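tokens incoming
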């Protein structure tokens, strides 16, 4: 039954994308939108095409049969014959200038995977900075090494790997020169060691973790080292300030990888879980058990099929709470592993951000804040030559708020040449299990890293149309973005229209029926001396946003200015902002309980002062104060965060607070949000963390404790405890906090590869 559903998923998704009927829904009913998109594609095709250049520098991985024990020490004899990069070049702040931080990188390969060794010399080993050992932890302010792999050879998409000097691992998928999604968690391993001359590291990446064409001997490669206390970046290929590590067009080459074998390409990840639950309405704790899992099959060396059944997300981290003082819904990012894997394949449209997300995976398995059973799901992800393929289908069960529903999404892209990529996206189904909804969209992007020699530039356009049980009005949307993101000047222009009948049931669209004009410029000089020799870089910013309805009536506008914004040589950040705003309310707006702002026009000025200490310090303090006019009165928002990390990265503490004080003729109110995170690492594979959150609106104290033991990469034990403590209405009765729910889950997940 489940196999039939998966087959139906892929067939149905392809039908949604390819049928002439669906195409007519998107183009014939919105011919002007279709013409705009086709015209944009024609303009892109006329832009100059730069052929893929042969990497200027390459390194060859040496084939070995010796087993490398990952302890970070590089003491096996195989390392003496390894392919070698003898040093890296300074990229920031002074490209090409010498440094005392010599870095050697060594490469070994066998049929099962690729192993890298790093020797990071440091004249002051005691000053090496680390703040965490956690998987996917924040490595800003840490001494670290990172590298990218372009295994497809298309100079667009690839893999990102990073570790710090304590062995904390971060990984992600690259979808563009500025786009790295850190949601992906691959199976790989790393270890580090501290020496009298600095630190060393060993990293092993199994061939089965990567997708790549078989038999190809060359990949794209670039490497980077960060020395945190000096805010120094070293790079292998392209040390221009305009070059980002994720820009694979600037990468060098890695050869010797043609011997890699992916085996049968079959991976099975079963899990078993025990839940123990109790809430205020049940006197006894209920205990239940369950099992499920995922299975992956590599259809080709570049294309994988994934099936999940009886999916459980007990180990997923809780959402960070937010205070909402707008009249629009908040965006909460996806955190569930099944949907994060390959999520980059479904990215659509240039310049959309969170204003319009055609496919938002949190619509599957969640509805109006309530969990919905995910019975079975399937995905096909990867590439086939110039084609990028992402297909996903899921069947959700019935709940108190939904019926059973079959949901589908498909995303296909095609690389026309080295600069131009075109694509389409389609969704079908409504999470409520009752309504009918589908969406079809097309997009294109042209980009280069060689404008005027070494400048980045891109132009992107998109169109979309939804059908089914959607509101009356225009059901289409379209947009255009021009982007010039470089070190000295960063300029962007965006225009988009979102129809009042555009309704993506599997997407996120907070403001339909609007026209958006967005643009801005940031001038970012680096003083060379004089009275500002303490400044590393200035950021003088001017960004504006105007939102109108489809009849041209202005709904809101905002101008963000930064007359002073500087990062010091030591890493501190100081900023002052002036932000005039305008809002038109067509109807009254309840901003807080019992505080209702009347309809009408409102013009007000906001100001901000922000300071932050350098991320490399053991204690990091940041504070931001917004103040000034707000609708009919005034609003002061004070956000503060204090972080502490032990010198070895084992203990991390973070306390964040937001206090909003509003004084309006309609009523005054105070909203508070407190968040405390404590994390202790016994080692990089054994982590205990707790998150405690309180907000004054819900009066709820939420506690989430998470223990993760990575027995070996791909095999994990999770113990998760969450509890909710309710505060009564009286502000003086803190002692009366009572437990409203309590949940304990123990989950073991194993991965078997063949």
């Amino acid at each position: 039954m489940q196999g039939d559903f998966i087959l139906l998923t892929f067939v149905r998704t392809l039908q949604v994308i390819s049928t002439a009927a669906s195409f007519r829904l998107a183009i014939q009913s919105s011919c002007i939108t279709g013409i705009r998109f086709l015209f944009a594609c024609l303009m892109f095709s006329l832009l100059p095409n730069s052929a893929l250049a042969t990497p200027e520098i390459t390194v060859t991985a040496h084939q070995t049969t010796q087993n490398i024990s990952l302890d970070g020490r590089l003491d096996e004899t195989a390392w003496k014959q390894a392919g070698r990069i003898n040093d890296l070049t300074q990229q920031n702040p002074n490209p090409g200038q010498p440094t005392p931080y010599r870095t050697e990188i060594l490469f070994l390969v066998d049929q099962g995977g690729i192993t890298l060794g790093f020797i990071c010399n440091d004249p002051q080993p005691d000053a090496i900075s680390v703040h965490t050992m956690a998987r996917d932890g924040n490595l800003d302010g840490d001494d670290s090494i990172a590298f990218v792999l372009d295994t497809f050879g298309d100079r667009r998409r690839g893999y990102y790997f990073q570790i710090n000097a304590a062995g904390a691992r971060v990984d992600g998928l690259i979808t563009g020169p500025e786009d790295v999604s850190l949601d992906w968690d691959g199976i790989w391993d790393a270890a580090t060691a501290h020496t009298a001359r600095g630190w060393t590291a060993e990293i092993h990446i199994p061939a089965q973790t990567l997708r790549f064409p078989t038999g190809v001997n060359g990949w794209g490669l670039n490497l980077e080292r960060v020395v945190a206390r000096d805010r120094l970046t070293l790079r292998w290929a392209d040390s221009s300030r305009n070059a980002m590590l994720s820009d694979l067009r600037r990468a060098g080459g890695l050869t010797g990888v043609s011997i890699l074998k992916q085996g049968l390409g079959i991976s099975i990840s079963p899990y078993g879980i025990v839940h123990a639950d109790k809430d205020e309405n049940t006197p006894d704790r209920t205990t239940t058990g369950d099992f499920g899992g995922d299975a992956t099959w590599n259809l080709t060396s570049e294309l994988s099929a994934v099936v999940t059944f009886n999916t459980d997300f007990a180990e997923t981290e809780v959402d960070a709470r937010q205070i909402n003082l707008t009249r629009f819904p908040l965006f909460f990012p996806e955190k569930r592993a099944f949907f994060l894997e390959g999520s980059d394949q479904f990215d659509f449209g240039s310049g959309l951000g969170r204003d319009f997300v055609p496919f938002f995976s949190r619509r599957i398995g969640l509805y109006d804040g309530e969990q919905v059973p995910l019975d079975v799901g399937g995905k096909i992800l990867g590439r086939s030559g110039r084609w990028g393929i992402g297909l996903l289908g899921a069947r959700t069960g019935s709940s108190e708020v939904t019926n059973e529903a079959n949901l589908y999404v498909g995303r296909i892209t095609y690389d026309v040449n080295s600069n131009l990529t075109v694509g389409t996206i389609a969704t079908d189904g409504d999470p409520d299990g009752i309504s009918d909804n589908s969406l079809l969209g097309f997009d294109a992007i042209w980009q280069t890293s060689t404008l005027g020699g070494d400048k980045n530039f891109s132009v992107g356009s998109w169109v979309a149309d939804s059908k089914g049980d959607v509101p009356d009005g225009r059901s289409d949307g379209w947009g255009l973005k021009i982007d010039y993101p470089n070190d000295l000047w960063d300029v962007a222009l965006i225009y988009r229209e979102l129809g009042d009948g555009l309704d993506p049931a599997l997407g996120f669209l907070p403001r339909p029926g609007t026209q958006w004009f967005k643009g801005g410029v940031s001038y970012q000089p680096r003083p060379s001396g004089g009275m500002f020799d303490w400044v590393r870089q200035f950021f003088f910013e001017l960004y504006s946003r105007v939102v109108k309805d489809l009849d041209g009536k202005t709904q809101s506008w905002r101008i963000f200015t930064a007359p002073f914004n500087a990062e010091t040589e030591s890493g501190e950040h100081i900023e002052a902002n002036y932000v005039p705003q305008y809002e038109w309310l067509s109807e009254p707006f309840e901003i807080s309980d019992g505080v209702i702002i009347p309809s009408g026009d409102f013009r007000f000025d906001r100001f901000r002062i922000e300071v932050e200490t350098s991320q490399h310090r053991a204690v990091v303090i940041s504070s931001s104060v917004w103040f000034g006019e707000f609708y009919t009165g005034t609003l002061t928002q004070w956000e503060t965060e204090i972080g502490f990390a032990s010198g070895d990265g084992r203990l991390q503490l973070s306390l964040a607070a937001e206090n909003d004080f509003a004084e309006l003729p309609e009523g005054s109110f105070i909203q508070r949000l407190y968040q405390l995170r404590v994390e202790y690492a016994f080692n990089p594979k054994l982590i205990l963390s707790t998150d405690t959150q309180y907000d004054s609106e819900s009066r709820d104290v939420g506690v989430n404790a998470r223990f993760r033991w990575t027995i070996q990469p791909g095999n994990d034990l999770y113990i998760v405890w969450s509890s909710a403590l309710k505060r009564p209405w009286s502000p003086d009765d803190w002692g009366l906090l009572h437990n409203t729910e309590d949940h304990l889950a123990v989950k073991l997940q194993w991965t078997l590869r063949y």
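note: Residues 1-49+315-473 form one domain.
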